[in-house]
From TrEMBL:
<protein>
    <submittedName>
        <fullName>ABC transporter substrate-binding protein</fullName>
    </submittedName>
</protein>
<dbReference type="Pfam" id="PF12974">
    <property type="entry name" value="Phosphonate-bd"/>
</dbReference>
Length: 330
């Protein structure tokens, strides 16, 4: 008899075949919760609601390092994104590079947010700016009231200050009370051109391509995870999930490559995929530890350097033992 599991994830071309039941995980039936990442992560981390969930890699590293993670990862990386496009600065502050953020006040939706962790890692590795060199300001971007999804205990020499309960990061940026904002979502002051705010990297695709050529990293944002008690009761499940979600991703990429009938509402999507593969190779969205070990190790190093994690966790600690050798070859 199939087991009934609660699955939470965002809806994307990589998850849709699973959500719609076109690709099955043998032995499983899912009760699916769809939503935005932040809401899913908070519910998973605070309430342990879901048996299988999409999970922030930053939060997963934090909770694993301190030994209270309710989930064990599966190296299915449902979200990846370059992050040079998500750095917004006041244009009246003389900020021309990440090095110029040293000594500045910089906003973040959450200090533990994976996107922010990646940007801090780039700042440290390429520009010598340590997390301790910046005053970080955290809170909701557009609507007041946000907090960290899980409590953090940071070293005393890392300055992180929550904004007021009636303030927003976008409002502080627009008023000039912070110098920059690192965020996955462009702030309204930038979109509406109501303040002297612009991207630090206006030609972000060129910057991200150059950085990819240098590092080989396509930043991992989210992984799939199984609640530890569920994985213990069904040790075959993590591998079965890996295989099904890898098949779903392969189907998504195949759809992008078909030009006889466009499956995606972009006129040159086939050419865009070809351009991307010319830079990144045929396997543009790799799953599995063997194909991502160097990148995951960099993430655990960033977390330790940032004070998020008290120690640098081993890659093997993050993922179920049955999945450590699995690799999706594209």
């Amino acid at each position: 008899m199939d087991i009934q599991l609660k699955l939470a994830c965002t809806l994307s071309d990589r998850t849709r075949p699973i959500v719609e039941g076109r690709i099955a995980v043998p032995g499983c039936r899912f009760e699916v919760t769809l939503g935005e990442p932040e809401a899913i992560f908070r519910q998973a981390l605070r309430e342990k609601t879901f048996d299988v969930t999409e999970l922030s890699m930053g939060s997963h590293i934090v909770t694993t390092a301190r030994g209270d993670s309710a989930y064990i990862g599966v190296p299915i990386f449902l979200s990846r994104a370059f992050r040079h496009s998500g750095i917004f600065v006041r244009t009246d502050r003389g900020i021309a590079s990440l090095a110029d953020l040293k000594g500045r006040r910089v906003g973040l939706p959450e200090y533990q947010q994976t996107a922010a962790m990646w940007v801090r890692g780039i700042m440290k590795d390429q520009h010598g700016v340590d997390a301790r060199d910046v005053e970080w300001v955290t809170g909701s971007q557009e609507v007041a009231g946000g907090t960290e999804r899980v409590a953090l205990k940071l070293p005393t020499d890392i300055r992180v200050t929550p904004i007021g309960s009636d303030e927003t990061l976008n409002g502080l940026l627009a008023k000039g009370e912070i110098d920059a904002l690192i965020t996955p979502r462009p702030p309204s002051s930038f979109l509406e051109r109501t303040a002297p705010v612009d991207r630090l990297f206006p030609d972000f695709r060129a910057a991200e391509t150059a950085w990819y050529r240098e590092t080989g990293f396509f930043p991992i944002m989210h992984c799939l995870a199984v609640r530890r008690d569920v994985a213990a009761a069904h040790p075959w499940l993590p591998k079965a999930l890996f295989e099904a979600f890898a098949q779903a991703k392969a189907e998504a990429l195949d759809d992008l490559s078909r030009g006889n009938f466009l499956r995606v509402a972009l006129p040159w999507v086939v050419d865009h995929l070809a351009e991307t593969r010319a830079v990144m190779g045929s396997n543009v969205w790799p799953y599995g530890v063997p194909l991502n070990r160097a990148e995951i190790s960099a993430m655990t190093r960033f977390a330790a350097t940032d004070g998020l994690a008290a120690r640098q966790v081993a890659v093997e600690e993050l993922f179920h033992e049955t999945t450590l050798e699995l690799a999706d070859l594209g």
